[in-house]
Known about the structure:
The chain has helices spanning 46-58, 78-90, 102-109, 154-161, 173-178, 182-189, 206-211, 230-242, 253-257, 269-285, 307-313, 319-324, 331-334, 341-351, 353-374, 391-396, 419-486, and strands at residues 4-8, 12-16, 29-36, 63-65, 71-73, 96-100, 118-123, 143-147, 166-172, 196-202, 219-222, 247-249, 262-263, 304-306, 326-328, 379-388, 404-413. A seven-stranded mixed β-sheet has the order 10-9-11-12-13-14-15. Strands 3, 4, 5, 6, 7 and 8 form a six-stranded parallel β-sheet that branches. A two-stranded antiparallel sheet has the order 1-2. 45% of the residues lie in helices and 18% in strands. By secondary structure, the chain is of the alpha/beta class. It has 17 helices and 17 strands. Helix 1 links the parallel strand 3 (29-36) and strand 4.
Amino acid sequence: MKFRFAAFGASLLIFCPGEGLARQDQPPSITVGIVTDGSYPRHANLTQMVRDEIVRLVSIDVETRVPADKTAEGDWTVSGINAAIDRLLADPEVDLVVTLGPIASHLVAQRRDLTKPVVASLIIDADAQGLPRQGPGTGVPNLHYLVAVHTERIMPAFREIASFNRVALLFNEAFVDAMPDLSARVRTATADLSIDPVVVPVGADVGAALTGIASDVEAVFVLPLMQFTNEEFTRLATGLIQRQLPSFSWFGRVEVQAGILATRTPDTFAQQLARRIALSIQRIVGGEDAATIPVAFAAQERLAINIATARAIGAYPTWKLLTEADLVADEMRIRGRQLSLDQAIREAVAANLDLASRDRAVAAGAGNVKLAKSILLPQVNVSVDGSIIDPDRAEALSGLLPQRTVSGSASLTQVLFAEPTWANYSAQRSVQESRVHDRETLRLDIALDAAVAYLNVLRAKTLERIERDNLGLTRANLETAELRVSVGAATLREV
């Protein structure tokens, strides 16, 4: 089926889906159907995002509908997904089909007798999958696919983070069923990288997927496994960590946040993909042949590394990578106690051992001052004396010495003037004041050092953030320059 346009008045183009001419008093309209590989529990908003972008952009030219009842879900089998594709291709109400899944996209891209335009949107590696290519487009009538992630750059980026030779590639088992020669194709595609790839089919059982990874595997490359729930994918990532296996995600940052070590696909990938699908549909609706529309688009790339995973498996990315990458789960950077300036100063003063020693010296000096002052205070002396002698001896002395005697005395003295004593007291007070001032000087020095260190940390963090922002802007400018060169709007000098 082809789109036909008829003139209406002097400037209006009427879009006519299906056979026969549309009445010229009717507004132009198209209906877009979507095929998925199955239910996407971790990417539930992907289909709606694509619907919204298609309606928002394509409706500028023609009324566009992407009804929910024209979304056909496969059952994660080749036969079920093919049946979903056939159902929409045969549906007379559907004018254009979008396959939103790697398996459905691969299966439809193998067909050569498409009766209506098809946009296959999730192609993993066009060369390895043996997809048709003629010039910038597919060369197949009514077929257009999108190559977004540059897989040939992923493995070199992965090996910058972790050294390995034997790597397991986790594919959905239905994708493996759709490509019986997948292992041979992967080996051919990676022949120049000096690695030993092993294809591991992954079904609905996370435990079986982990068991299927051989013991001699040194790294894991995770292809789109959209059948898993968030909990199941986290179990997969945790299992890879427990086996000390570095991992790399094709799909993007959302999987790195779940525990995968790294990715080069940014978290904006889904939005970019949805917009590119809408742009391709707009070009097809505008009259371009789907077979000639370029299949490649310059998707942004941004390295993201899960620092918690890196620590857990003993992987140590270079400083250059850590500087340029977005660091996920960087608990040492983000977490920890947070102190205000006042709290930092108080804790520094309370924990300083030199100051604690100076406090003891001041306390001892206060005792010396009291001792020097005590001599100048009134002195009271009291004494009591008593004696008892034997009765016979007292009798022999005829009363001259009583048998029991008690005597006491009391005296009060006050120093009125004694130069050495007053001088000692004055000196001790001066020395004590010196000790107190020295302690306060040390306390202020400690507070100053703590405040300066605190502000230096804030300054360093600010400078780091500024440099990271500058790096991000530079990277964005580079991507823009490369995109301008790729579309012929600039020269290599701009790059």
